[in-house]
Amino acid sequence: GAGVSQSPRYKVAKRGQDVALRCDPISGHVSLFWYQQALGQGPEFLTYFQNEAQLDKSGLPSDRFFAERPEGSVSTLKIQRTQQEDSAVYLCAISKGVTSDAQETQYFGPGTRLLVL
Amino acid sequence: DAKTTQPPSMDCAEGRAANLPCNHSTISGNEYVYWYRQIHSQGPQYIIHGLKNNETNEMASLIITEDRKSSTLILPHATLRDTAVYYCIVRPRFTGTASKLTFGTGTRLQVTL
Questions:
Q1: A95 and A105 in contact (C-beta within 8 Å)?
Q2: What pLDDT digit, counting tens, does each position of B37-67 carry?
Q3: Do B95 and A48 touch (CB under 8 A)?
């Protein structure tokens, strides 16, 4: 995607381990989204940031999931005590403005593929 | 948000036009139709969007019926690199906060020689 990098690209974790996934957008993008994509499914919304403020976390599946964007740029999605059902691709998306108008297009990173054993 | 219905899979010969249908019969007047695609092991890629009128860009054309209950994405000359899952998404125009994308399961387009 245009101007979004994610790391690591692949992560294998043992069940119960904590993981941290990073999203690094190019500067000047106010809005940042995290999505989760299970195998064979479309991406599902997890959470949204407007600059450093987390305005919507309604999609986070449990309190083991935590996201932050402390300086309004890089964002980290943390999953504590990982479970096998957390295995998925985690996608970060950005858009330039405050996405109150659907004309704002979201641009996606390549994703992090997480496998929990 | 309005729900969309797409065929699970389609085939298209290389060089021919690929016409991908989408039904969104419960769409409301202030909702856009968006199309994204996802090539294997990549993040979704924006293709095109529209509200009422037909739209065209360098990637594709979007034809929206007059009643707005369905649309068709047209790739005029499909190539092998267009093999991907194509998602049709209906998105509210204005919301109180971020307008997240609600994906379905999409149409898997296979372009063949």
A1: yes
A2: 999 989 999 999 999 989 999 999 999 999 9
A3: no
SS in 3 state form for chain A?
Answer: CCCEEEECCEEEECCCCCEEEEEEECCCCCEEEEEEECCCCCCEEEEEEECCEEEECCCCCCCCEEEECCCCCCEEEEECCCCHHHCEEEEEEEECCCCCECCCCCEECCCEEEEEC
* Contact yes or no for B100 and A56 at CB 8 A: yes
Give tens-digit pLDDT for A22-51. 999 988 888 999 999 999 999 999 999 999
Contact list in B for residue A40 (CB cut-off 8 A) is 105
User: Number of A:B CB contacts under 8 A?
Assistant: 80
A25 touches chain B (CB under 8 A): no
Q: What is the mean pLDDT of chain A?
A: 92
